[in-house]
Amino acid sequence: MSDAVLRVPGPGLAFVRRWSFDLLHGAAVMLLVGVIVLPILWILLTAFKLPRDVYSLDAALFFRPTLENLVTVFAHPWNLGGKIINSLLVAGGTVLLAIPMATTAAYAFSRFEFPLKKFLFLLVIASQFIPAAVVVLPYFLMFKAYGLLDTRIALVLVNLSIVLPYAVWMIKGFLDAVPLEIEESAMVDGAPRWRVLAEIVVPAAWPGIVTAAVFSFTLTWNEFLFALILGKQYALTLPIGLIGFRTERGDLWELMAAGGLLITLPMFLISLMVQKHFVGSLTAGSVR
């Protein structure tokens, strides 16, 4: 009788421990989600508030929404429309140049043997860790000497130096997973190297190439330091436009939030598109 009584608390204690662990785990997840979601929610709500509602606790969640801020940021003197065009051209141009270059470079590192191969690849990877503040002055002097300051071309070139090393590293990982026998059988049948690369290797490594392209676009879209120093008037990008909302009356949070919404929305849409693409690629791969 006494032994049975002593054995009863065992399962109960295990249940309490399990319940406590689940509770702490859920609280940690909710805290992490809150840290990520709350700033986005704040930007979303503030972008549709009148200036008087931004600083009012009574209007923190319940207020009369307005589109005035989204209209104002496109008007003088903010003119975010031109800055959005600059950001799209710079980010798009960077991706269009970086991805073909990174794919061919990654293919060379993955398939060919040449002197100092490992050293050169490590050099490419190490260039990612160079702080932007260290190289911005040489870029500034070089572009000034060639008359490229305050141009989109300068921003595309300088962003290539940022995104290209990571794109090479990422795409190479996917190319290494492509079986070499497929390429060899195609070349035995008479296919040239460029056709093997275009019709066999690239489709097989397409998820990695798309991931590298999205990363390159995102990094270029959000780039601030180079655009601030190398741009003056004609090549200003959207992140630079946000600092213009600091005026003599203080920070215009409602306009800054509207500009932040314009920066965030394309990234959200691209994420949705890439997610669908990856699901389709994995399904097609499993069928084959």
Would you mind describing this structure in some detail?
With 288 residues, this protein is mainly alpha-helical. The protein is built from 14 helices and 2 strands. A two-stranded antiparallel ribbon has the order 1-2. A hairpin with a 2-residue loop joins strand 1 and strand 2 (250-251). Helix 5 (80-111) packs antiparallel against helix 11, helix 6 packs across helix 8 (152-176) and helix 8 (152-176) runs antiparallel to helix 11 (206-221). The longest helix has 38 residues, at 9-46. It is globular, with a radius of gyration of 26 Å. The termini are far apart. The model is unreliable at 1-6 and 280-288 (pLDDT under 50).
Describe, in short, the structure shown:
This protein has helices at 2-7, 9-46, 51-54, 68-72, 80-111, 117-126, 132-145, 152-176, 180-188, 193-204, 206-221, 225-230, 238-242, 253-287, and strands at residues 246-247, 250-251.
Whole-number average pLDDT?
84
Helix and strand content put the structural class at mainly alpha
Instruction: State the helicity in percent bands.
Output: over 70%
Shape: globular
Uncertain stretches of 5 or more adjacent residues: 1-6, 280-288
Provide a count of the helices: 14
Rg, please?
A: 26 Å
String of helices and strands: HHHHHHHHHHHHHEEH
